[in-house]
Amino acid sequence: MSLETVRAFLAAHAPDVEVLVTEASSATVALAAEAHGVEPAQIAKTICLRVGGETMLIVAGGMSRLDNRKFKDRFGGKPRMLDADEVVAITSHPVGGVCPFGLPAPLPVYCDVSLRAFDEVVPAAGATNAAVRLSPQRMAHIVGAEWVDVCQG
């Protein structure tokens, strides 16, 4: 179902963006980079976090790590990663297929500046073997993301 909600979202907001479904799993940064022939840093990983009572998505470069100090300075608290069941309940996407597209309810989406190093990034598309290719600026635009600097590396 999740893959279908992503396809429907993209059909409505970016009909020229094709969902790429691979035989191989792309559930991790390394597997996704291999499956799509890109550098691991070009994989746009989506992290589902909670700070206080707010749940959000952070989309960052595949080799980036959250910087707790930068995050706390920007959002006023320490991030707590959600477990797999919570992620599915909130996004409808399985871990390894989480993306900012086709969500059942609006969530704040933030794109880390680590994505700006590339002309094209590869975020997941709602399944552990699905992704899309697009510019980080276009991705941020179609999901209404705000740019932040909350990662290192």
Segments where pLDDT lies below 50 for 5+ residues? none
End-to-end Cα distance, whole Å, is 34 Å
Structural class: alpha/beta
Number of distinct helices: 5
User: What is the arithmetic mean of pLDDT?
Assistant: 95
Helix content: 25-40%
Listing every helix as H and every strand as E from the N terminus to the C terminus, the arrangement reads HEHEEEHEHEEEHEE
| Coarse shape | globular
Estimated radius of gyration: 14 Å
Any overview of this molecule?
The protein has 153 residues and is α/β, with parallel strands linked by helices. The protein has five helices and ten strands, in the order αβαβββαβαβββαββ. It has helices at 2-13, 29-36, 68-75, 84-91, 136-143; strands at 20-21, 43-51, 54-61, 65-66, 80-81, 109-112, 122-123, 130-131, 146-148, 151-152. Strands 2, 3, 5, 6, 7 and 9 form a six-stranded mixed β-sheet that branches. A two-stranded antiparallel ribbon has the order 1-8. A hairpin with a 2-residue loop joins strand 2 and strand 3. The protein is globular, with a radius of gyration of 14 Å. The chain starts with a helix and ends with a strand. The mean pLDDT is 95.
SSE topology:
Blueprint: H1 2-13, E1 20-21, H2 29-36, E2 43-51, E3 54-61, E4 65-66, H3 68-75, E5 80-81, H4 84-91, E6 109-112, E7 122-123, E8 130-131, H5 136-143, E9 146-148, E10 151-152
Parallel strand pairs: 2-7, 3-6, 6-9
Antiparallel strand pairs: 1-8, 2-3, 2-5, 4-10
